[in-house]
Write a structure and sequence with these properties.
The protein is an alpha/beta fold. About 35% of the residues lie in helices and about 20% in strands.
């Protein structure tokens, strides 16, 4: 088993000329070990931290008599960089969100999966067995959902008698007690949802309208946050009433673990949601082994432990924080947006101040 953080660190040189015999003996033993390992199949996996902990990797290695090289990424940019780099042997399996997978699928870089090699997929919740953009095309399966997070609303139960809606984020009664994620793509999509517009395919005339809406929202905020743990201290210090939870139930768990009496809701207007799925790259030389990895990661014990360790939902069980009373609207899986750069230009101006002239 090898775990990489983007690149493999080079081993330090320890040999000295006066120890040439020891060095030669060690080198010979290392060569024999390398040759033995070379005879093993090596599965190269690219995924996010926590998606395959060491005990799960070791179990797979022992069961299949292989080695796993697990490369960790920390952003979509790192994901793309690793997939574009002509690394030795390339990657066999990748975990990515449906937007990234849709791009890989359009480029012909994903392998169609054999459902017969994925028997544990039958244990997934019905909505994850249905075709989802980025995971299926033309009746064929290309990726298997693994984890997700809807971006619902977290609210203070002491300050709200009923779960809020998206429109509540703009309500002046809560000025200075609202938290919002600092992200251009999600901000415009959410503002479009609040108006009942399609969130991922904005028309040019819609941008100024939504920009004005987001200026009004910014005036209502205590602060924009970026990291999932930031709101915990803010909530305690400033009596926060409401937050758009970009990290969903992961943040709900953090706040409840801090002893806060908070509720969670997917509002009637719906909630954006990211979905990460396992996929096999078309370039793999061992498609059956790669699909056995995906099936391994659907083991109920692994999925339950993943949720316990990471605070993220799995696709086999409904998360505890998303009961029928909390699910008031639909979950809308993220899709590529019409113009990411334009959203970023508008958002920078919105965050900086109210003057929107000159933004194309």
């Amino acid at each position: 088993m090898i775990v990489r953080a983007n690149t493999m660190a080079a081993l330090p040189r320890q040999w000295r000329r006066r120890n040439w015999l020891l060095a030669a003996t060690a080198a010979s033993a290392a060569l024999v070990g390398c040759q033995a390992r070379a005879r093993q199949s090596v599965l190269r996996v690219l995924a996010w931290p926590g998606y395959a902990d060491l005990d799960w990797i070791q179990a797979f290695e022992q069961r299949h008599g292989v080695r796993v090289e697990f490369t960790i990424i920390g952003s979509d940019d790192m994901l793309r960089a690793n997939l574009s780099r002509p690394a030795h042997g390339g990657f066999d399996v990748v975990a990515a969100n449906t937007v990234e997978l849709a791009a890989l699928l359009a480029q012909g870089r994903l392998l169609a999966l054999d459902p017969g090699l994925l028997p544990l997929r039958a244990g997934q919740l019905p909505r994850f067995q249905q075709p989802i953009a980025g995971t299926a095309a033309q009746g064929r399966l290309y990726a298997v959902p693994f984890t997700y997070s809807e971006m619902g609303l977290i609210y203070d139960r002491r300050q709200f008698e009923q779960p809020p809606s998206l429109g509540t984020l703009w309500d002046r009664r809560w000025q200075g007690r609202v938290l919002f994620f600092d992200g251009s793509a999600h901000a415009f999509s959410l503002a479009a949802q609040a108006r009942g517009w399609a969130p991922f395919a904005l028309q040019p005339a819609q941008f100024p309208v939504l920009a004005r809406d987001l200026v009004q929202l910014r005036r209502n905020l205590l602060v924009l946050y970026r990291l999932p743990e930031e709101p915990v201290e803010l909530w305690v210090r400033h009596s926060v009433a409401l937050m758009h939870a970009n990290y969903g139930q992961q943040q709900l768990k953090m706040l409840r673990d801090a002893g806060l009496d908070v509720g969670y809701v997917v509002p009637r207007e719906g909630a954006l949601a990211w979905l990460d799925a396992w996929a096999v790259l078309q370039s793999t030389q061992q498609p059956q082994l790669a699909q056995q990895w995906i099936n391994h990661m659907l083991d109920p014990a692994i999925c339950a432990e993943f949720s316990r360790r990471q605070g993220l939902a799995n696709t086999l069980q409904e998360p505890a924080g998303l009961d029928a009373a909390s699910l008031r609207g639909s979950i809308v899986w993220l899709e590529p947006v019409e113009d990411e750069e334009q959203r970023q230009r508008w958002w920078r101006r919105i965050v900086a101040g109210d003057r929107l002239q000159g933004v194309a």
